[in-house]
Amino acid sequence: MKTEDVLPADTADGTGHGPPVPPDRTDDRARRAGRADLIAAACGVLLVTAAVLVGHAVQSRDGSLRAQWPPLLASWDPHTGPGTLAALITAAGVVAYGPRLAARLPWRGLPAAAWAASTAWVFSLASIDGWHRGVEKRLTTKHEYLRVIDRFEDIPATLRDFTNHIVIGEPGNWPAHVAGHPPGATLTFVWLDRVGLGGGAWAAVFCVVVGSSAAAAALVTVRALAGERLARRAAPFLVLAPAAVWAGVSADGYFTAVAAWSVALFALAATRRVRRPAVAALGGGLLFGWTCYLSYGLGLMAAVLLAVSFLARTARPVPVFLLGALVVPVAFALAGFNWWTAYHLLVERYYQGAGGIRPYGYWVWANLACAVLAAGLAAVAGLRRSLVAAPGAVRDLRGGRAAGEERRTPAAVREGRLALLVLAALAALLAADLSGMSKAETERIWQPFLLWLLPAAALLPRRGVRWWLVASAIPALLVNHLLWTGW
Description:
The radius of gyration is 22 Å and the shape is globular. The termini are far apart. 65% of the residues lie in helices and 1% in strands. The chain has 487 residues and is mostly helical. The protein has helices spanning 23-62, 84-104, 110-126, 131-136, 155-161, 176-179, 183-194, 200-212, 214-226, 228-239, 244-247, 251-271, 277-292, 302-312, 318-335, 339-352, 360-375, 377-398, 410-434, 442-445, 447-450, 465-482, and strands spanning 74-76, 483-485. Residues 1-15 have low confidence and may be disordered. The relative contact order is 0.16. Helix 12 (251-271) runs parallel beside helix 14.
């Protein structure tokens, strides 16, 4: 057995410290860790149950939640559709063969395979609602970006005038999603229309195909920072993410991919795993700049980027990254769009609508129930292991150990690094939650953060991995067959 394949449970304290212990003690610690994983998952189930019960009581009493099936923005609508069989086959295939294929495929082919499988999973779930209702029509409703394509005939003039139409009451105020995002989001669909890919179908295909590449970006990042073994173990969970319900079809899936590739390129530059780290850093910066002009809240992805720099123990690519990140803001500023002015007007618009009615006291914890549903119970159990591994990981990076503590195994070090990456994303998610600007719809809005919780499942033991995959797939299938999810 290679040193890097030794599990943390093979050591005296079950976290990778100290000398090896006899198999009976190892098994005992593994059983206790397994029970703790199940308890964490059970707490996730209880949180969701509480959010459903309390949410329905509050909504029935005064309607203040502005959600028909809280905590999700959804309505009760049991149904099957053309994608039902495809979704079942995709889920069964990933559960049965995903871990084995992820372990055996040549690395060069694994990110592409994960991208393809993720695309199939998202499309199959979306098609449960039928092609027209579940795919083609999704981005053409009254709240969506495609409703204003014709108003961008003169792009520079529209950008200069963009902030004048954010607040409700102004003449020709933007639809909810256009007003709620910087113009980069809408411009994406304007440019698709300009190159002949106009309409809801092309917009949907673009969002799903590009958005699904986030799984590949996460794999690249995990491998660069925590090693190939953990990246391979994370792959099936990245593919079979319950968040796929809301990625298909949503522009937030596209936002997720842009942010994810920004992190991946920065990680490659920081760990010097590419021939030209400076080019990777510049590309990552360009994508991060674009990310901030797709959604105001995605500036919080800086927490994940900081974690990457911390884990790589270098700030060398940061200046080039920042140079790239400035390109998009400068371009928009020269075009006449002021990001800060628009953001403050968005806050005003937010409280003019449902955001001013929905109670913070419910959503500040019910949002986390949405995150459990979108990330899955495997991610919840993996987060527990991440919290346990974090102190040792910080000591590793600082180069210190507690008194009497032996050197940790290489495998434990890598798992600790992954744990810190996951916890950085959790910190960004919690910051978004506490801000009060994400009351409801977080199963969709938080996809860029939720993506980075999924690799935590790689910290779970190999034994039982298929049951954890089942626990990811079944809620997604139930939500898509029992509810009509909207945004």
